Amino acid sequence: MESSVNNPLIIRCKNCGGQQHFDIAKQHYICEHCGSTNELDSQKAEFKNWRKIQQQKVREGISQVRTFACPACGAHTLAASDDASAICPFCQNTMIDAEFAGNDLPEIIIPFKITKEEAENKLKAWLAENKGNKAAKVIEDNLNRFTGCYLPYHIVRGAFNGDMAIGLQDGTTTHYPFRAYLSHTAVNASQDWDNLFLDGIEPFDFSETREFDFAFLNHQNAKIQNVVGDALNARVEEETRAELYQSLAKKARTKEMDVLLDDNENESIPALMPVYLVKCENGVAAAVNGQTGKVSIATGKQKNLTRNWWLWPTLATLVVALVSGLWMGEALSGGVIALVFGLVFFAVAHNRHHKEIVQEIITMPEEENRHNDTQTEFFADFGKGPVPTELKFFTPSRIIKLIVGMLVVTLLPLLIAIPIQILRGLPLSDIKIGYGAAWYITPVFMAIVLAGGAAKTMMYGEPLYFEKQPNGTLKRRKLPSQQKFSLKQIFPGLKKAGSSKAKVKLPPGCAIFIILFLLIGSVAAMLS
After folding, report:
1. Neighbouring residues of 410: CB distance < 8 A, sequence distance ≥ 6
2. Which residue of 120, 134, 468, 516 is 20 to 30 Å from 150, comparing CA positions?
3. Which helix (H) or strand (E) holds 96?
4. Which residues of 323-353 are buried (b: 16+ CB within 10 A; e: fewer)?
């Protein structure tokens, strides 16, 4: 990626002047050209010193601009004194002079790269392709209000330590340590615009970041941030957690988690970003990235991001019902087996889905990701200190083991009856499979407990660990205190999952007696 010598976000190598990147495993910066390193604390001290000098420059230059306030929408903007516009860039009403409120002044800026005409053509292209969309008609009727303005952001950068926390069915929580590094996460510092809507025009190309100078406002207004203090800190933390959540969810292939962060000293830098905007009624709005031309549309509607998680377990259950019904020749026995496995299928699917309803945002092009440089890595200690590790929960092999285990338990009377029938010298076709219905009901209760959370406890409570090797391969490992996952753990899982809600306590050995009674009775019935 192209960089500039005056880009304050680029970390330069003191040895050769090349760009350094963060090594998340070793927790330091390393030069991509000569291999020289720069410690994290050293870099933070250098950047802190640059910020102190830059803040002083910006404060001294505040006299070069005027502050305006819009009595209609409440927006406050900065504009160069020689060509200050008295027209609000957001609602087109006349603005009045105002006093600067003393909010964080920008320290860095990404300049406009495309003209208003080019940005408007980008938006018109989207409107032409979406003529049937109601939001498109509303935006088209308000194109005369389309304007450009620098919007206030805070750029978050730094190393993070934290835990991915997953709550289990028995009330306990498992914690998986991770490290992360954000090179430049943009956090909207204006309460007048929805975060998700502005996220749609990202990513910005941070290689074109410059030290802020009021000369950039000669032909563009800049909105003054109105999210400050605790509200700003909360938004920065929320956006940081959201970005880490997305990265960790993709890496661990689960959304059943919380992101817990340690006390991390990270940088939050006031910045200005180039955006063309038009705001309409009923939540409809359009934004165009003033650097890349990417379009984001707020339709004013809500969108459910929850996938149809129930579809594949329903189809799988129907297949099991059909196969088992044809094999056993009885609808009842086939239905019971389908119920057992259906509950397992639904338990797995339900524990992996995540309900999420958000404002409907349309972006163009959709294949461009907002965050493509966030680093997250799990770490585990196998006896010689934390090392980069990959975690796996609902793997195909584990799901197959669970299904095979349920199948063995369900067909246990048949598996016992077959060798007995062979020893008796009688044909296997004489076994009355349907007569085992009394036993087939037993695994249903086991499946209900699995669906109630035992499966989640087993999978999330004891993940598979894979240590990342220097050559990029993965080596299966286990923690010193970790037991190897096996089908035998289904039964302690059932006991733990069922004990919290049990109201009737059976005498010792009674449960075993009932199970043996059903098993022996079913085998005898099949062989009669």
Report:
1. 337, 340, 440, 443
2. 134
3. strand 96-97
4. ebbeebebeebbbbbbbbbbbbbbbbbebbe
Our measurement of the distance from residue 19's CA atom to the centroid of its chain's CA atoms, rounded to an integer in Å, reads: 29
| Residue 175, both tokens | 């914690």
Name the one residue in this structure whose structure tokens are 């389309």.
Answer: 146
Whether residue 328 contacts residue 342, with contact meaning beta carbons closer than 8 Å, is answered with no
Residue 203 in contact with residue 369, Cβ under 8 Å?
Answer: yes
Q: Dihedral sign, CA of 362, 365, 367, 372? A: negative
What is d(CA 521, CA 498) in angstroms, rounded to the nearest whole number? 26
Give 10-residue mean pLDDT values along the chain (528 residues).
64 86 89 88 90 91 83 80 64 74 84 94 91 88 90 93 84 88 91 86 91 87 88 91 90 86 85 93 91 91 69 81 71 71 72 64 66 84 89 83 79 90 89 78 65 65 87 86 50 44 53 80 88
Structure tokens at 100: 């600067």
Question: What does DSSP say about strands 222-223 and 76-80: parallel, antiparallel, or unpaired?
Answer: antiparallel
| 167 φ, ψ (degrees, to nearest 5) | -80, 135
Q: What is the Cα–Cα distance from 320 to 443, expressed in whole angstroms?
A: 15
Instruction: Provide the phi-psi class of 383: left if phi over 0, else alpha when psi is between -120 and 50, else beta.
Output: left
CA atoms of 270 and 224, how far apart (whole Å) = 11
Which residues does 442 contact at the CB level (< 8 Å), separation at least 6?
409, 515, 518
Structural contact between residues 38 and 242, judged by C-beta atoms closer than 8 angstroms: no
Q: What are phi and psi of 497, to 5 degrees?
A: -70, -30
| pLDDT at site 454 | 61
From the CB of residue 29, how many other CB atoms can be counted at a distance below 10 Å? 21
By residue count, the chain amounts to: 528
- Please give the biggest Cα pair distance in the chain: 106
Reading the block at residue 164, the tokens are 């991915």
Cα(265)–Cα(312) distance, integer angstroms: 45
Run of H or E residues at 477: strand 474-477
Distances (CA, A) of 218 to 70, 103, 491: 20, 21, 72
